[in-house]
Design goal:
By secondary structure, the protein is mainly β. The protein contains three helices and 18 strands. The chain has helices spanning about 1-25, 40-45, 60, and strands at about 70-80, 85-95, 100-110, 115, 125, 130-140, 145-155, 160-170, 180-190, 195, 200, 205-215, 220-230, 235-245, 250-260, 270-275, 280-290, 295-305. The longest helix is centred in the first third of the chain and has 22 residues, at about 1-25.
């Protein structure tokens, strides 16, 4: 059984890498909101969640982790973004049994109210452009390896409207080094592209490799390395220190760094905290974008059996 599991893992990784090579390209991509991370906990840690996301946001970070949650969970995040825009994320994870799990998620990005003008400069009203993606996924445990896949329908309404389809693949390896080290691999946003008028644009596909190390019951460190199909590679680093405040109340403090932003000024640094009461957790993340401004992310997580 172990030999079969290792063979299956090798085949799956080869499939992931083959897909990455197939879809890799130069230039730019459309629908950047698909790359916007989910869950204030992981965002506060530099957006490094590929190896250890333990709630329903695993739908975003790594579908292979869905089966390893152990509990059902619901997550909702809201962010007042830059220049009047906003970003919302919601997900639900259902543990079928110890060996399988289901998940659904919703990503919604609003560009805010945009005034429209004709060729003469006359005001012709306003529009409220948006992007939205709805996804469903399935994950199984095979000899300790979590393997997952999710498919998504994407709808974009700017001046024109467009629809696209994509899927994500992910794998979570068994714990190593006395259960302290976690690792995972994900390829996200694999699709044919989106077409507004005549020209089709590629989706922002990315391959991510993540690792996380639990030093003790309080301290966790994580790192992700991301390689977009179009664009430059990046690194995300984060740490979390958690502690119980009472029998039912807990707190966590987080910080991180991400190399993706090219904005001038203070950028890349992230910070945040979380407060938990029984099965409810509220998390907050602070993310500066240099001269572009500051974003705040707030999310709510609820676990149940």
């Amino acid at each position: 059984m172990k030999t079969k599991a290792k063979l299956l893992l090798l085949v799956f990784i080869m499939m992931l890498l083959s897909v990455a090579v197939l879809y890799a390209s130069e230039g730019t991509t459309a629908l950047p909101f698909l790359q916007m991370p989910a869950g204030a906990r992981y965002i506060a840690m530099g957006a490094a969640g590929t190896a250890f996301a333990n709630d329903s946001t695993a739908m975003y970070w790594n579908p292979g982790l869905m089966v390893k949650k152990g509990k059902n969970s619901f997550d909702f995040m809201h962010s007042a973004y830059l220049e009047g825009s906003s970003y919302d994320y919601a997900s639900f994870g259902y543990q079928i049994n110890e060996k399988s799990a289901l998940g659904v998620s919703l990503q919604y990005f609003s560009y805010g109210k945009v005034e429209m003008f004709d060729m003469s400069g006359n005001d012709v009203g306003s529009v409220n452009p948006y992007d939205v993606a709805v996804a469903a996924g399935y994950s199984v445990d095979i000899s300790g390896f979590g393997i997952g896949i999710s498919g998504k329908i994407i709808r974009s309404k700017l001046e024109a409207e467009a629809t696209a389809f994509a899927f994500d693949l992910g794998i979570s390896a068994p714990k190593m080094f006395d259960g302290k080290f976690l690792s995972g691999l994900t390829i996200s946003n694999i699709g044919s592209g989106v077409k507004y008028d005549q020209e089709s644009e590629k989706l922002p596909g990315t391959i991510r490799l993540g690792g996380a190390y639990q030093f003790n019951e309080h301290l966790l460190a994580a790192m992700d390395i991301g390689v977009p199909f179009a664009g430059k590679a990046y690194c995300a680093l984060g740490a979390e220190y958690s502690l119980p405040l009472s029998e039912y109340v807990s707190a966590a403090f987080r910080g991180g760094y991400n190399t993706t932003s090219d904005a001038e000024g203070v950028t890349g640094l992230t910070a945040g905290f979380g407060l938990g009461y029984r099965s409810f957790i509220v998390n907050y993340a602070f993310v500066p974008f240099g001269n572009l401004g500051i974003t705040h992310r707030i999310s709510l997580t609820y676990f149940w059996l």
